[in-house]
Design goal:
The complex is a heterodimer of chains A (660) and B (250). By secondary structure, chain A is α/β, with parallel strands linked by helices. Chain A has 30 helices and nine strands. Chain A is 66% helix and 7% strand. In chain A, helix 4 links the parallel strand 4 and strand 5. Chain B is built from eleven helices and eight strands. The chains are: A alpha/beta (660), B alpha+beta (250). Strand 9 of chain A pairs antiparallel with strand 7 of chain B, so a sheet runs across the interface.
Chain lengths: 660, 250
């Protein structure tokens, strides 16, 4: 519940009498649905220039014009014939909720692709509005789209939009009130039409959108029949599917091709009427850049450049900011409090080694927050120019080696953003093997953006080489784990890889700032209490002696096997609560000179692998079932100890000579 | 050539029965329904194309019969591919006529033209012809898999051969379909193609199932005059149709 929603609720209460209008936003992946949602409702959900940003349905009430609306944001949808589970959610939503208005978001760059979905939506017969986004980009490319002609052809309002810059939103709001049923004149030919009406007449009475359901039945949609069975009972639907199967046999040809051909013909006719192309246009820098990013030779230096730039920003800019904040804000407060409070107990509680201010609040605000704000700015920039998806292309061969051939690649790449979201994104994977490997690997050695940022902060204190060693080790571990899983899990089915790559675009500084702001806000809201409570808990453990006992018990593992100072146990305990808290503690230890070169690397590696964050475990259980999910978490923890120990010994015997 | 067509229909059915590991006379009888004609069986027997065993209750193709049947099946399925993917439209009736009137050479020409398709539109395997076996070295196709384009080249899609409907819909949604221009951007580490302004990364497996017209400037399969004009090297449609006329004795 964010502030926007509260405001909306307030506004709603005042005009509660009018019925709520249900507005559902659909569109192809990465066409700006969430951006439109944010702009319409005044709420904020993360937007980025890559597909799969939105995985869950998000709804909110708000007031548009003088009408109360329930606005629903959805994950991407290609057409109503469903390819994957995440698309199924959207279709089920449309079918079950009977929206009053559908807003279809179209990226003007991909008008033709979007029209396939338009055709499907028009056939449903729900009032519609089309929002034609990124219209400025097509114009720049010398492609002119006649939106009024489009509107005339479809009989629905078409609104030109530059959603990133918030241009055209008022018009869209107005258009929602004028949404109408569109014109859809395409017929599939006498025979098929007869069959469609045949099936229509056999469908259960109260079903919505009979025609479209019939067409989908005829196309043998893999999910539809099962769904209908659930609602209307096995018997009733069995007859229907048998009939459909008979028809499909009778038609000596490929129904899907015939129907798609008709639809494509319509798409061609429409685009021919509304699109005008300049004969010559500017070669776009963004195109060249995109190509270089994916290029096997130039792509890797570019990736290295981005990593290095982020590293330098985090280490130097964030480091400088942190230092300043410590000197200007933290130190005076600490000395003020130490002077003010005489009682040692309270002094320790507030500003001692495990003080809730020093270890809790200040670590969160000064150490972690500065690093994250710098990092998220950079990361948001990379997201919004559309760089992230290109990594799919670069890394494809590596992933192939570890059994991830098709759709699993994108979720794994997303893991570098947020592991929880990435785990949820594996929902679309049909092959059990791929899903298992992907979920495991996401949880295992991939650092999420926050972890990556903070490891940069820690290792930046001892040098870039250390950063390279630690991440090199993690990459090896990840590939090794994938390789082993791939060897041991047997499976037949191989999913195929088709990934649309987003247009590279110059992002708006404002939207990156807003995104960073929200990410930091969410971080503080979630993590700050955890930081404070965790340090209070540590303080208690320390005072009661539990901490010492634990340290004694763990000493053989931590000191004997991992070669780390015993105080690292503090960090491991904090790790259970929140990775960033542990990392902040590590930074303090590095600053205090308590960790040497090798120990630093080992500590970062183990905290990256150790206990995926709580949300991630929940997501794992959700996707794989509680048993498998938990088993994975336990395995990951055990192997992180084993592997970190091995790494530690290897480092001691190799580079130990020079650095220790 | 009396009853050639009927005989070939029988051989065709026997081929299908063989792939389903059936050899009983009853199955053949059922498949032909009321058209069943024992004279034809006799004729096939006399030409040594089939063998009867177990008291005439089982019927199997001989070696020669199998070769013959294989040719017919191949012509039929190739014809389906041609009519369905390239010309568009109802293909069954056309293909049924076609298979009885063409020569293996013509079928091979069409096969080369289509880039050696492996499956008919129903998804049944097309038996390999001689041309398929030596294709790697000699064929200069007009229709080639997209994988054979040079990086940076564009071409118009002739047809897309899909594993299943799901893939068909997926590709269709991205507008990867016959008639659309695609450009090959990158081959390694992953294939990247441009189709209707969008860049798409995909598996080699899928890219190799997208077939494109190679010579796109002066090649229009729909217009009659284009068909009559011989194309360089005497390959492609020109040769194919000249061949047809010659065979008809024109």
């Amino acid at each position: 519940m964010r502030t926007g929603e509260k405001e909306c609720k307030k506004r709603i209460n005042s005009i509660n009498q009018k019925p709520v209008k249900k507005v559902i936003i659909v569109g192809l992946p990465n066409t700006g649905k969430s951006q439109v949602f944010n702009n319409l409702t005044g709420e904020y959900t993360i937007v980025a220039n890559y597909p799969l940003t939105t995985l869950e349905i998000k709804r909110t009430h708000c007031r548009l014009g003088n009408q109360t609306c329930e606005v629903i944001d959805t994950p991407g949808l290609h057409c109503l014939y469903i390819h994957s589970e995440e698309e199924l959610i959207v279709r089920d939503l449309i079918f079950s909720e009977k929206p009053d208005v559908i807003i279809q978001c179209i990226d003007a760059n991909q008008l033709k692709q979007s029209l396939i979905l338009t055709a499907d939506l028009l056939e449903l017969g729900i009032p519609m509005v089309i929002s034609l986004n990124a219209i400025d980009e097509t114009t720049r490319r010398g492609i002119l789209i006649d939106s009024s002609e489009l509107s005339r052809l479809f009989g629905v309002p078409v609104v030109e939009l530059m959603a990133v810059h918030r241009r055209g939103i008022d018009e869209l709001e107005y258009a929602i009130s004028r949404a109408r049923n569109g014109k859809w004149g395409v017929r599939y030919g006498d025979i098929i039409e007869k069959w469609i009406s045949d099936i229509e007449s056999k469908l259960p009475e109260d079903i919505n959108y009979k025609r479209k359901v019939s067409v989908l039945m005829l196309l043998h949609d893999p999910f539809l029949a099962d769904n209908l069975k659930k609602v209307y009972g096995e018997e009733k639907i069995k007859q229907l599917t048998e009939k459909v199967n008979r028809i499909r046999l009778e038609f000596r040809g490929n129904l899907a091709r015939v129907i798609n051909n008709k639809r494509n013909k319509w798409v061609d006719d429409v685009t021919e009427k509304v699109i005008r192309k300049q004969k010559i246009a500017h070669g776009e820098f963004s195109e060249v850049f995109a190509r270089l990013c994916r290029h096997p030779l130039f792509g890797i230096p570019i990736l290295a450049f981005f990593i290095l730039a982020t590293y330098l920003l985090v280490v130097h800019v964030a480091g400088f900011l942190e230092g300043q904040l410590r000197v200007v804000v933290a130190d005076p407060i600490i000395s003020y409090i130490s002077n003010l409070i005489v009682s040692t107990f309270w002094n320790d509680f507030l500003v001692g080694h495990y003080g809730i201010l020093t270890m809790g609040l200040f670590n969160a605000l000064f150490t972690v927050l500065t690093i994250l704000s710098v990092f998220f700015l950079m990361f948001g920039f990379l997201e919004d120019i559309g760089y992230i998806t290109n990594l799919c292309v670069l890394t494809k061969r590596i992933f192939e080696k570890i059994g991830l051939t098709g759709k699993a690649i994108m979720p794994l790449v997303l893991g570098f953003g947020c592991k929880t979201m990435a785990t949820l994104a594996t929902r679309g994977l049909k092959s059990h093997k791929e899903k298992f490997i992907a979920v495991y690997l996401i949880a295992f050695a991939i650092p999420c953006s926050a972890q990556l940022a903070i490891s940069m902060g820690i290792l930046g204190r001892i040098g870039f080489a250390a950063f390279m060693i630690a991440y090199g080790a993690l990459v090896l571990v990840e590939i090794g784990a994938g390789f082993i899983l791939n060897k041991f899990i047997k499976e037949q089915e191989r999913s195929y890889f088709i990934q649309e790559l987003p247009t590279i675009r110059l992002p708006s500084a404002k939207s990156i700032l807003i995104k960073t702001y929200y990410r930091l806000y969410w971080f503080l809201k979630e993590a700050l209490p955890v930081f404070i409570i965790a340090s209070a808990a540590l303080f208690l453990f320390d005072k009661t002696g539990i901490l010492n006992l634990t340290k004694k018990l763990l000493s053989p593992v931590v000191v004997g096997w991992l070669n780390l100072p015993i105080d690292i146990v503090d960090a491991l305990i904090l790790c259970l609560a929140r990775h960033e808290a542990a990392a902040a503690l590590l930074i303090n230890m590095v600053d205090a000179g308590a960790l040497n070169y090798v120990q630093c690397i080992v500590a970062v590696v183990i905290t990256t692998m150790f206990v995926p964050c709580f949300a991630n475990i929940v997501a794992m259980c959700k996707e794989m079932g509680a048993k498998t999910g938990l088993a994975m978490a336990v395995t990951i923890n055990l192997s992180s100890f084993v592997l970190a120990g091995i790494l530690s010994w290897i480092l001691i015997f190799t580079i130990g000579r020079w650095v220790l | 050539m009396n009853k050639k067509r009927e005989k070939e229909e029988y051989l065709e059915i026997l081929w299908r029965m063989k792939s389903e590991e059936k050899d009983s006379m009853d199955v053949l009888n059922n498949a032909m329904g009321e058209n069943f004609d024992s004279d034809i069986i006799d004729e096939l027997l006399s030409e040594n194309l089939v063998e009867l065993t177990e008291n005439n209750s089982k019927i199997i193709l001989t070696r020669e019969g199998e070769d013959y049947a294989r040719r017919i099946i191949r012509s039929h399925r190739i014809a389906e591919r041609l009519i369905y993917d390239v010309l568009g439209g109802e293909f069954e009736s056309g293909a049924c006529e076609f298979e009885h009137t063409v020569t293996p050479e013509l079928v091979d020409s069409i096969c080369i033209l289509l880039g050696h398709p492996r499956e008919c539109p129903h998804g049944m395997p097309i038996p390999e012809g001689e041309c398929c076996m030596r294709s790697a070295k000699t064929a200069q196709n007009s229709v080639i898999p997209l994988t054979e384009l040079e990086v940076g080249q564009s071409a118009r899609i002739a047809y897309v051969s899909c594993k299943n409907d799901l893939q068909l819909h997926k590709l269709d949604g991205l507008q990867i379909r016959p008639g659309v221009f695609v450009k090959l951007h990158q081959v390694y580490p992953s294939y990247v193609i441009e189709c209707e302004v969008a860049n798409i990364a995909l598996d080699k497996e899928i890219v190799s199932n997208i077939y494109v017209w190679k010579a796109l400037q002066d090649f229009k399969p729909i217009k009659k005059d284009a068909l009559e004009t011989p194309i360089e090297n005497g390959r492609g449609w020109g040769r194919c149709f000249r061949f047809m006329r010659k065979r008809r004795g024109g």
